[in-house]
Design a protein that fits this description.
five-stranded antiparallel sheet, six-stranded mixed sheet, about 30% strand
Length: about 270
């Protein structure tokens, strides 16, 4: 009898700020310029922008060349071990932005769009960091590293403009957003991304089978994320990962968080 593979549950959620207001507009047909008129402030849910991710290995195998038989790199353990717990998160709205190189302001060139902005100075000369406003959070009850990378096995339109900024941390010992930040190529002053373009890969670095469970963020959960994001302003700008992880667990924040997450799971 085949031994059942061990599993590890990874909880994930859209991390848009539920308290972030937006303005609802209408168009006045009597206005010769047909300019939008602000009507009221609303508090939207952006949940529909976040679809379930695809398992990268399953997606690649669905496209495999059947004539290759067993001589196929998808069956090589070195490849399979990388992709079996790698998931593809995708964009849902075509968006196109122009960046003013002097003021660092951004203008959307499409009426239907997800927001984006230049939020900070470039880390590398003449290569702006463009923040595309899709945010995610991940958490696990045990120590588990996540690695977010550009979707290097998929062709994307945005790769003509810049690259997704990679990162890694322990999602069992820290809770903060994964931002969709892109470093634009040298001198590039625009950013375009198509619908269904992969935003990034999320790879969970374990031999266990990863089971994804989605949850909803509430004010208490959001507050913990904000505290982690702003940790450096409370405990020091150059606090190490080890210090952060220790403070997170010693304060029992991880136990408070997992209880809140389980209360807000989305039924399958």
């Amino acid at each position: 009898m085949k031994k059942k593979q061990e599993e590890v549950v990874v909880y994930w959620a859209p991390a848009y700020d539920a308290l972030l207001p937006t303005t609802k507009y209408m168009r006045d047909p009597q206005n010769e310029h047909n300019e939008p008129i602000p009507m009221s402030i609303v508090y939207p849910s952006w949940n529909m922008l976040y679809v379930e991710p695809d398992n990268c290995l399953d997606e690649l195998k669905s496209q495999r060349n059947k004539d290759s038989g067993s001589d196929n790199y998808l069956y090589c353990p070195a490849v399979a071990d990388v992709f079996k717990n790698t998931f593809v998160y995708r964009n849902q709205v075509e968006s196109y932005f122009k960046v003013d190189m002097d003021t660092k302001s951004t203008d959307s060139l499409r009426e239907e769009t997800i927001a984006g902005a230049i939020k900070r100075l470039p880390s590398i000369n003449n290569q702006h960091i463009f923040s595309y406003h899709m945010f995610y959070v991940f958490f696990c009850e045990e120590d588990l590293k996540i690695e977010v990378t550009p979707p290097y096995f998929h062709k994307t339109d945005y790769s003509d403009y810049g690259a997704f900024i990679s990162g890694t941390f322990n999602i069992g010992a820290w809770y903060r957003e994964v931002n969709c930040d892109f470093q634009l190529w040298d001198g590039v002053d625009e950013f375009k991304i198509s619908r269904n373009d992969p935003l990034f890969y999320a790879r969970f670095m374990t031999d266990k089978k990863v089971v994804l469970k989605r949850f909803k963020i509430n004010k208490e959960i959001q507050a913990i994320s904000t505290s982690c994001r702003d940790y450096r302003f409370t405990f020091g700008l150059f606090a190490s990962w080890e210090e952060r992880y220790s403070q997170f667990k010693n304060s029992k924040t991880h136990k408070i968080l997992i209880d809140l997450i389980k209360e807000n799971l989305v039924d399958e």
